Model the fold of this input.
Amino acid sequence: MEIQLSPPPSQPESKPGTLITKLRASSLALIVANLVPLAGVIWLGWNVSWIMVFYWSENLVVGFFNVIKMRRAQGPVGNPSMTLNGRPVTVDSRRALIIFFIIHYGGFTLGHGVFVFVLFGAGLRGSFTQFLMGLLILLVSHGISYRRNFIGQGEYLKVSFATLFWRPYGRVIVMHITILLGGAWAQARGSPVYALLVLIGLKTLIDLIAHWIEHRKFQKSVSMN
Done:
């Protein structure tokens, strides 16, 4: 499939303080979600293996919400260069493109998961209960961002489901390459607390920067059109 994404369509001007307010709330939720591994290290005895698997599981959450966004997006496709199975993507291609995203992103996530479990799986031990609780917090964090930014900020009215197809990949790939390198470094040092704190802090910082860039880019396109 060959894809060329066109610039976002023109969008109405929004109030100056609205985006900052909404991003503060969603950023706070993001920080809280990223503190789960810290709590795991301090109170539950998590090592680098648990942290890496927890961070990998965020791929599932990101993909889940991207499917919801693709279903909800109402912006015009407006890009005849984007094709699916040799045919131009149109408004009638939503269902097919969502299914293709699930397969495509699912394969990417599976491959990443195999890589993580091969490198770090030997260190896993204990109950999955705390891990599942952390996963629930991730769902809440991304849900807040979806509600406040994608819906509340009106992004869904302007972005097309076709544009959303590739959106998760850039953030996920950059983030997890960094995390894998940091995790390998922490593992090589025997998972000391300071190394785990560096890993958690690095991931949180990258997450916040990517979060702000994504939504500021959208807001900039609003003011330019």
